[in-house]
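User: Show me sequence and structure for the first protein, then do the same for the second.

Assistant: Starting with the first protein.
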Amino acid sequence: MTKNEATKLLDLNKYTKAQIDSRIIEFYDAKIVQAKAIDPLYVKLLEDMKKFILRGGKRLRPTLMLLGYRASGGQDIDFALDAALSLEIFHNFVLIHDDVMDGDLTRYGGANITGIYNGRFKRSLEDSAARHSAESVAILAGELNEFFTFEVLTALDTNNKLILAMMSHYQRVLFETGAGQMLDVMSSLRGEINLSKIEKVNYYKTAQYTITSPLHFGVIAAGGKDKKLLKDFSAFGAELGKAFQLADDLLGVFGSSRQTGKPVGSDIREGKQTVLMYHAKKLATPLQWKAIESRLGKQNITAEDVKTVRAVLKASGAQAKVAVTAEDHLAKAFSILDTTKIDTETKALLKSFASYCVARKK
């Protein structure tokens, strides 16, 4: 990725973020007005949801959607941005529920919806009751965002056939992401590190959700007639998704709280089954692996525990193995793009996006 290409991608992302954020404000402000006719508590929830979605997120999925739209010959950028608003709201729905399932109280460098309400409820309730009530509110917030996604689509100035095609896309994405989430939950409970299961989780929770879905959504928004492009984006997304997830696994263990927006050692505390842990088990000595295994899933994990796990991952060669594998998948993603018939500038931006996914620090 050249400096000029990186600048173009950054400019596109800044533009997309500004446009999406303005649409988020407009949408949630309208919902807050509606809530005022019901109850102040409901108003507060909508205000919290608005602040939360605006506080974080790099708007990468809307940016990727615009690239898919451009690649498919889409011309109406305002329409594409209106449609892309649904992507960010849908993503927020998934994140809120994901945090409930992971038991996390933070996101985007601060309290998530559960964390916000847990703090409030603890002033008058016992810890367990406060947590349960806070998670109940978070589940509600997620559900509201799920339905807001479809509300955004139905308000689009286009024909019903295209709206139904976009709705069908989300239904398929949610079904497949649900499969990845279910497998992820079960693998953590069983404590087994099965590479084929991990890769299946990574495909459905990352590759199709983070990469392929926004690109496909862009193609669909442009009319969805280029079946070859959809197929190429599926192949590209599968490879880049693998690279993205491997980079995310490394960041999840070696990154700071400021970089990840989550508590340090969150992946270790969750006992997350990752390709990184798979290679650690294969490459580490029995004593080294025991040092990691005894800390996976440990709820009261300490800074010293995190330091120990990091040291073993580095000494065993697992960290280096995952980094190299991520680069291999990135190279495969590039080779797929090289044979894809799209305009030169969009192709260059997609390559820059792919490089960012692997090299990112947050």
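Switching to the second protein now.
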Amino acid sequence: MAFVSLGFVLLYLAFKDQDLSEVFNQLKSANYFWAIPVFVVSLFSHIIRTIRWQMLMKPLGYRPGIKNSLYALMCGYLVNYAVPRLGEVTRCALLNKTNNVPFKPLFGTVVTERAIDILCLLILIFIVTLMEFSTISGYCYEIIFLPLYSHFLSTLPGITTILILGLLSSIMLFAVFLIFKNRIKTSPVFKRIIQFLQQIWIGIASVAKVEKKWLFITITITIWVTYLLTTYLWFFAFEETKGLTLGAGLFFMVMGSIGKSLPIQGGGMGAYHYLITQAVLLYGVGEVYGNALSIVVHGFQTAFYLVLGGISFFIISLKKQTI
């Protein structure tokens, strides 16, 4: 609930001082031809992501078809728009339905994928920070930290109370575990939890058994290149942003990825719009163009997942389980 509130707060901050009629005019004048190459790149991105997922499944002894894997992946992204992080569970459950791939180790491969993505994002943040340190440090402090700090300062006593209660609860649970550890370790529930975690670990460990590691790395890099292109290509849809460099596209992609990674419904709605709207100011672009750009990029991504995710759900619902 806190993150949902944060999303609406950031959405409000992104548009509160803007002339919405001017934003609407920019949206009307945008060149939507660029939706075609963005769609092609986005589709290619998800296909190679599916191939990378299959490479993680292969060491486990499972090779579901690329179509079913892609359908499950797209359904997962769609579900994430409604309930963040539930999509990872959904795509594993759907592939279990269509191809009888065991859920637990399959979920481990998804955990591995997410860990790799986070590592890649951290590397890109480091690279962008080195490229634009003075500008970005001021941006992060003035545009991100101060507004969030001032908004949530009033809730500090409540946060402190929650942290204290959480610490005390952790201490009590640890004490209970020490006192009853022998009974806990022999209980059926504890054994099931351990077995569940072991099965997930099998999936996580699959990354070490990938046969073509250089291909796996190449695909991972290509995935992030496509993410960059799906942001950069939209620059050409507006007169004011078509002169921005590929480096600016990299910065926008990183900020957008941070916004979308927050567990906020609607693919980071609000967080994405706020970060992109403010990021354009670093490159001398009017804020109204940032508003329009954030709406177009986020809106296209939302439509992409709604349409292809919906189609994928429909196709999977008609399928029978295969081995």
